[in-house]
Every structure is written in C-alpha cells, then in structure tokens.
Amino acid sequence: MTVAASQPVAPVASRTLRPERPLDPALTLACLRRGGGDPTGTTTPDGSVWRALQTPDGPVTLRVRADRSLGEVTAEVYGPGGGWALEQLPSLLGELDDDSGFVAHHEQVARARRRVQGWRIIRTGLVMEALVPAIIEQKVTGQEAFGGYRRLVRRFGRAAPGVGARLGLHVAPTAAGWAAVPSWEFLQAGVDASRSATIVRAAKVADRLEECIRLPLPEAHRRLRAVPGIGVWTAAETRQRALGDPDAVSFRDYHLAGFVGVALTGERVDDEGLARLLEPYAGQRHRATRLLELTHGMPERHGPRLAPRGHLPVRRGRR
C-alpha cells in the first residue's frame, strides 16, 4: 500500500558524514541501479538518491543527499533496518574505500581518476542483494534482465518502508522469499530454469553466503563459486558491490574486454588480452576498469550474452 501524498512521513533516524575527500553519492551508488525502471532505487529532482534494501534487521528505505556548500552527506532512513543502514553508512557510501596506493599506469586511467574524484567502491555487506540480480543478468540482454528483475521484485518483494512506498520503491525478497518463488513465475519473468535454479540454490545457503562479508576476499570468492551456476562473472559482480573488492574483474563479460582494449590501446581484445592489460593493476583491477567505464560510457555489463528469446533453456555451466 502506498503512502498518501498528503501524509507526512518522518524518517526513523538520520546521520551526517563530513568526508575528508570529495564524495559523490549518486556516482558512487550508481552500480546498484538495475536499469531505468529499477524498483529498488531512484533519484529525485532534488538530487537525493533513494535505495530500498533488505538488511539483516529488516527492510529499510535509505535517502542520501549531498550538501556541497557544507561539505556534508546526510542519510535518512525509514523502517526497521534503519539502524543497521546508518551504522553501515560509511561502507555503503564507499567512505572506507582506500585508493591511496592506486597507481594509474595509463594516461587514460589517470585522466579518468581526475574526472571522478567523488567516486568510491562501495561495500554494502548484503551478499544476496547483489547476487540475485547478477544471476538474473547471466547470458541475456540488459532489457530482458532488468525487466525480469523488476517483475519479480514487485511481485514477491514488498513496498519499501516510509517515503519509499510513496516513491513506488520495493524491497527485494528475503532469501526465503526467493527460494519460494514458483518456477513458472521465474519463467513468466523471462528467467529460465538454469538461472532460477541457481537463485534457489543460493537462497538455500544464504546464511553461508552472507558470511562472505567476514572472510578474506579469496575465500569469499571460493565460497560463492561453490554454488553451482555461480561462475567467474557472477562472483565478481557480487564481490564488487557486496564486498567492496577493488580487484574483482568481470571476466567473461560481453562488453568489458573489448571496451577496455579500445579505451587503452584503440583495439578490441579478448579476456586474455584484458588480463594482460590489467596486470600492472593487480589488486586494483576493478578500480581501473570502473574508472574507464564511468568516463567512457561503456554499455551495461552482462555475462556472455544470448539473443532475446522466449522461455527456452540456455546453455548450462558456470557463468
């Protein structure tokens, strides 16, 4: 049920950060947006970034806005997950992301870094929140993936707390909610049996996957990959958002290798070529590629792509 437009809704709590470095919340949180119609987030004309999150303490609507004149970033929260979200706010906004040791080995990367000084690598600490849409995006076009995710979240999620409901936002299902989605509902959303089975398998071990936030990154990667259907690309996309991994490269992406090759050398390369180009950035390879993406207008990233189709099975195997 949405909130009546005339009914004021007060936030549960708020928190203000005064970053020592420039921080652009919209740019930083853009990686969470799943297409233009993403039901879990939006940006309003006043510059506020809104996110509806499923936290360990329950759903929350998070509003983040920057006041550049004061050098402040303020967050307001609505819903039972508000306390958790405010406690995690520095991580959610990438304030704990340390790029002081990053060296740009290409002029293109150095130029990109100067242009997007307010961007950070976030660490949401919400593994399933990042993993499920990444699974849905395997081997399909962006339009198909975003449409399927939108339909499933609106049907099986819940209206976001407080003002989030007025904005039409929805919180994604819990792990138990994803596990309970009938197979035919996945199919009607354009998510084939292979991907829906991966989502259900992940949901059934969600507690173990959420523990990845406390593991060393290599061990977290191995745990994600232990779930059949979660491959290199899907694990990397999850680590980038949930774990704040600056080295997680989305190998096997439909666009990334060619895009980076053209940006750095003027010629397209494959994944092997991408790995060679990124060797100087070991430990910071995702940071280097994301800087190029933000400044060179790369298309939405997705795993190995198939053409749009009806509800037909896709090739199995890790993604």
TrEMBL record:
Low complexity composition bias: residue spans: 1-14
Keyword DNA damage appears in the UniProt entry: yes
Region (Disordered): 1-20, 298-319
Keyword set, alphabetical order: DNA damage, DNA repair
Protein origin, superkingdom: Bacteria
Protein name: 3-methyladenine DNA glycosylase
Species annotation: Arsenicicoccus piscis
